[in-house]
Design brief:
This protein is of the alpha/beta class. About 35% of the residues lie in helices and about 20% in strands. It contains eleven helices and 14 strands. The protein has a ten-stranded mixed beta sheet, with helices on both faces. The longest helix has 15 residues. The radius of gyration is 21 Å and the shape is globular. The model has no long low-confidence stretch (mean pLDDT about 95). Bound molecules: S-adenosyl-L-homocysteine.
């Protein structure tokens, strides 16, 4: 059945026509869902009961249930575990910065990319998230905390380009003035590098930031960390990035998780510089968050500093990512996995 929250404005207009309703009802219902952020049909109190009834017979309006909430005592970062209508659990993080509130959303239930250091992929992919479920992670947080969300990063569980159609529709609806009207410049989508989708996204000409998870300066090492590297080479990724920069004028972010003794030497930093030389880009260094299923260790402070200074000397724009919510396992699917494991253990 149609999920009402997933419908674009045009699709909502078509639905009203199909239901034999006046066109202006589309605007009213769209406003209730995407501006007033309602979770139930009955909250639409200027919509006649008969239409609400019709809508509930022909469509679905799934709410999300808060299964748990963890608030960091260090920096106020809040991690939500949401239960979806079918019982699946996803995690979403709210981070408060001086420039505004940023929400990190999940793009899939689980992930099939298999990156070696990542907790989100250990149990594989369960299913895609719908447009409604992508939006609702933000809607729920804005509504219940009463605080405006100004930035969105698609960097939670899942590979967004493996759910490409929904992600693009989600971005369009989130940035539409008839919805939350978040600036496209304040949206970042992070991918492990599905090359054909980078080209497709370039065609969309959105003003969002594209982040590429690189994590290695050469294909040989990247293959050890990320199975997707067997499919696409760094060279192919960088070529696609050039097309993206050319089409959008936007600077690309390269993410590089530093793993002790694996990818964090000065030599590797220099190799990375030679690959990125002259590109409109920014490198985000992330000391890896160790997960118990793997024995990867985080680079020590000294190596992180050395790696960064090599990049700086070669004039590659780079920063070390500030750690948020360290006390609540805010990183990368760890909380969801623990929750699911506990549920299984409890049965
Ligand atoms: N699938 C997308 C987005 C999700 S992960 C992608 O690959 O980009 C967001 C970022 O966190 C990615 O750069 C990912 O490689 C990184 N990441 C995952 N697990 C991590 C860990 N344990 N420590 C540090 N970074 C991690």
């Amino acid at each position: 059945m149609t999920e009402l929250r997933s419908l674009s404005y045009e699709e909502m207009t078509d639905l009203m026509q199909t239901l034999g309703e006046k066109a202006f009802r589309a605007g009213q219902v769209y406003d209730w869902i995407h501006k007033k952020l309602i979770q139930n049909y009955d909250e639409m109190n200027n919509i006649p009961k008969s239409l609400r009834q019709k809508l509930s017979e022909h469509t679905q309006l799934h709410s999300i249930k808060e299964a748990d909430r963890y608030v960091s005592e260090i920096d106020g970062t809040t991690k939500f575990l949401f239960e979806l209508f079918d019982g699946n659990i996803i995690e979403t993080v709210l981070m408060k910065y001086h420039h505004g509130n940023s929400v990190c959303i999940s793009s899939q239930v689980g992930c099939r990319m298999g990156c070696r250091f990542c907790a989100s992929t250990l149990d594989g992919l369960t299913r895609q998230l719908s447009v409604s479920e992508l939006l609702n992670q933000i809607y729920y947080i804005q509504k219940t905390t009463g605080e405006r969300v100004s930035n969105v990063v698609v960097m939670g569980t899942g590979e967004p380009f493996d759910n490409y159609e929904n992600i693009v529709k989600f971005i369009k609806m989130l940035t539409d003035e008839r919805g939350l009207h978040i600036s496209q410049r304040n949206i970042t989508v992070s991918t492990c590098g599905l090359v054909p989708k980078i080209y497709e996204l370039a065609e969309e000409k959105l003003a969002i930031t594209l982040a590429i998870s690189l994590h290695a300066p050469n294909d040989e090492l990247r293959k050890q960390l990320m199975p997707i590297a067997n499919k696409y080479s760094i060279e192919e990724i960088l070529k696609a990035c050039d097309a993206y920069i050319e089409a959008t004028g936007r600077r690309i972010t390269f993410e590089y998780s530093l793993v002790s003794g694996v990818n964090d030497s000065k030599e590797q930093a220099r190799e990375l510089c030679s690959k990125l030389k002259g590109k409109l880009c920014h490198v985000n260094l992330i000391p890896v968050n160790p997960i118990e299923e793997r024995d990867y260790e985080r680079s020590n402070k000294e190596s992180v500093k050395d790696f960064l200074s090599v990049l700086e000397r070669k004039h590659i724009n780079a920063t070390v990512r500030r750690e948020m919510g360290a006390d609540i396992q805010a990183a990368c699917g760890q909380l969801r996995k623990r929750y699911n494991d506990e549920q299984k253990g409890g049965i």
